[in-house]
Amino acid sequence: MAAQRTQTLVLIGHGMVGHRLLEALAERGALADPAVPGGPGWQVTVLAEEDVPAYDRVHLSSVFTGTDPNQLGLSTPEFLSGHGIDLRLGDPAEHIDPAARTVTTTSGAVVPYDALVLATGSYPFVPPIPGADAAGCFTYRTLYDVDALTRYAEQAGTGVVIGGGLLGLEAAGALRTLGLTTHVVEFAPRLMPLQVDDGGAAALRATIESMGVAVHTGVGAAEVETDADGRACLLKLSNGERLPADVVVFSAGVRPRDRLAREAGLAVGDRGGVAVDEHCRTTDPYVYAIGECAQTSDGRVYGLVAPGYQMAEAVADQLAGSGATVFTGADTSTKLKLLGADVASFGDPFADGRDGGPRATEIVFSDGREGVYKKLLLGPEGQLLGGILVGDAEAYGSLKPHAGRRLPGPPEAFLLPAGAGGTEPPGADALPDDAVVCSCHNVTKGAVTAAIAEHGLTDLGGVKRCTKAGTGCGGCAGTLQAVLDAAGVERSRGLCEHFPELTRPEIYELVRTEHIRSFTELMERYGSGGTGGSADAGGGAGAVRGAGTDGSAGGSAGAGCVVCKPVVANVLGTLAPELGLRHVLDGEQAALQDSNDLFLANLQKNGTYSVVPRVPGGEITAEQLIALGEVARDHGLYSKITGGQRIDLFGARKEELPAIWRRLIAAGLESGQAYGKSLRTVKSCVGSRFCRFGQGDSVQLAIDLELRYRGLRAPHKIKGGVSGCLRECAEARGKDIGVIATAGGWNLYVCGNGGTRPRHADLLASDLSAAGLFALIDRFLMYYVRTGERLERTSAWLERLGDGTDGTDKAGGTDEAGRTGGTAADRGLARLREVLIEDSLGICAELEAQMDRHVAAYRDEWQAVLDDPAALARFAPHVAGVEFLEPGRGRAAVLADGTEAALFRNGDGEVYAVGNRDPFSGADVIADGIMGSRDGVPVVASPLHKQEFDLRTGACLDDPSVALPVLPVPTARP
């Protein structure tokens, strides 16, 4: 059906699937060239119901947390105009005349077509209960819904979501984000009944309820009761229970939008959906249907975006002439994060032998304490039929491509946590070439491998650009990296292009042994790479040489990158007592810090910061609680009690932080350093103070541990826990440092963690005295600080030690004895005992002395900032002029026309000006990013997700379709 002359294609609907069809046609060269009237190709008219172009509905909930709706956009004016696409917003189709081949819109316009594609999607099902149309009742499908719900929720206190499926739990997360007390009502006996089984639903429910969301299953909604003004106030359930409900969100499923097809006489399915064949063609050969409005040739209606994209590819092939692509069914695997819980299912997660299918053997791993549930279903021949992962879905990328095949290793390798007795799961080299590694864009491992070879790809960004894999939901990123590794793409052993031959442990040793006191000195002696480029390399308005320079720091202030600068800052912070350095924000060190360390607070997705005071061992006074409450009230901050037994305050602007901390410090609180790669918390139970089972004072020991190791910067964050007995109420074995009281003293466990790869800590030593315990922890932490790689958790570090790669050749030699046999973690633990208990390297006394110097030098970082006017000046929202810029560091400024710019100056005095709004998040944060260079190009890295932008041109080096505006540099004042 390829157009040999200009023909007219009408697309009804401009959602994600409809827009993917336009992209697929453009990729095939099937669209008419607007510069060649009458030439071959399709001239497209798009009839859209909404008044905005296509946007990413998958991430719709991010708007509730501050994402600019414009950042969800999928289309650009350049794409539409460049392909001559006539997009008519807010004028949806009203009637189709198949005989005349015309579509009439609500405005009365009549649009003829040679081919018609229905991409009308679905509509939310609202149960026919009394009061469902009352004020305060909403559905959740569009940007309009989000805006209306957000505005209404400002006056509401409690919200109820009807429906506990994917969209329902996402809606519940939205209500919770809006500050409402939230309930979820699900008619089925469990949450997410189409994706998970009873075990998975139980783990999911426990996680959700732990976040304060009330869950009601096995019950339906009977009536929305209203107040005297006709506004929702109560929801009556089918069991007679009444829930407070200022807001009711209906998320009880969707129905295909097939009215136009029905009225036009096209065949539809018994349960809705426009009937189509394997080419997505309806019973009218000139009309196609794709996405949620279509009932495909396998008799199903697919509600996920990935099958919709595959249907779009099939129709694009038909319209382009080849017709090679067909759609006969799709993988409905999903991987999501709902209310903070990872949930994934793949294959047939309910295979039980009914309907003639194979009967499955179940292999289950469950950890109720961690909210983790994993189940694999194997067929009679050992083939993987499907699976469910809740709470820890890291194995999803490894398992999904094997669905329908025999696993290349024992199932336990994919289920058991690291260090729990399982073996490592096979890598990407075990995947066949026809295994689909990206379901959203139907990309196979073979296609990725071919692109790596053909284009010489060396990183994940290159794979995304060349194959589109990883650009949908993003769930396949780990698998794609594994394919890169399996293809023989070597990762540089060095830290980055500026230190290509040095690892983090080697940099640490150089700084320690050679007394290097600055990044500039380290770069000059051991670094490599450019200083950030010059303005004449494509600069234009956004770069000016010499504006406000004082000659300080030289070109190195613009060198380095988002990788090496924070690493060196971290090393200098750890070794500050040895080097005579005072504060992480003194002088040049400020230019090295990531935004969290620069402002001593955690950057959030909307550009605000969180405030986290230290609460050692979870012990806090009434006066301190009152002070926290008053600060939260006066500054309008969201308050959250964390799993680490302290209180987070969210939503502070950076200019508010000094005033907030003055009040908190006056109340006896200090920085909790939640922003740093350092000790976070030491959690405790009540221990022998109150518990009848307690064998040790876990509270006091947790306090002592946290106060001793506070401020210690490390390769990654460190968490601790102390339990007063073997009942383990503090979950100490899920921490980097875990201590459990026994009748004989204290047991020390090390290298555990939660997160995406949960791991139980291993017993390092038993029945220690308090003095012996502290000495051993001193050694453990300082050895980790010396030998850990960048962003390497202690659990991964332990396994690397077991492989004999601890880098200790520079610290006194490497001893391989005792490290054969067992898992990498077993060998790593043996190595730790050799070094830290047997003192095989002769460094134990040195490690303890170094920790003593750290403890003696500790000073609260926020108190130091409040005492330093120069440090306080960085918290001002805008800089007065370029003359106030520090080399290598950005500042926000308001230009004469009111535009907010991000200004940067390198050490040579060169100044750059770009827009301050991060195009990926919509937050005004670019000025707070790290300035550096990439392949000789001066760049800034977004502090949110580290995408890098060319400061000369504004172009994003990680996504060529995105750019920052380049702005004129303001003139320095005389």
Characterization of the model:
By secondary structure, the chain is α/β, with parallel strands linked by helices. It is built from 26 helices and 43 strands. It has a 5-stranded parallel beta sheet with strand order 3-2-1-7-19, with helices on one face. Strand 38 and strand 39 (900-905) form a beta hairpin. Helix 21 packs across helix 24 (844-857) and helix 22 (794-802) crosses helix 23 (824-837). The longest helix is centred in the last third of the chain and has 18 residues, at 770-787. The chain is globular, with a radius of gyration of 30 Å. The chain starts with 5 loop residues before the first strand and ends in a 24-residue tail after the last strand.
Approximately how much helix is present in the residues?
Answer: 25-40%
Overall 3D form: globular
**Overall pLDDT score:** 87
Tell me the strand order in the biggest sheet: 3-2-1-7-19
**So how many helices?**
26
Low-pLDDT runs of 5+ residues are 530-541, 545-555, 808-820
Mind summarizing the main beta sheet? 5 strands, parallel
Number-wise, the strands total 43
Tell me the structural class: alpha/beta
Strand content: 15-25%
How far is the N terminus from the C terminus?
Answer: 69 Å
| Radius of gyration based on Cα positions | 30 Å
Quick structural gist:
The protein is α/β, with parallel strands linked by helices. Strand 33 (679-684), helix 20 (698-709) and strand 34 form a beta-alpha-beta unit.
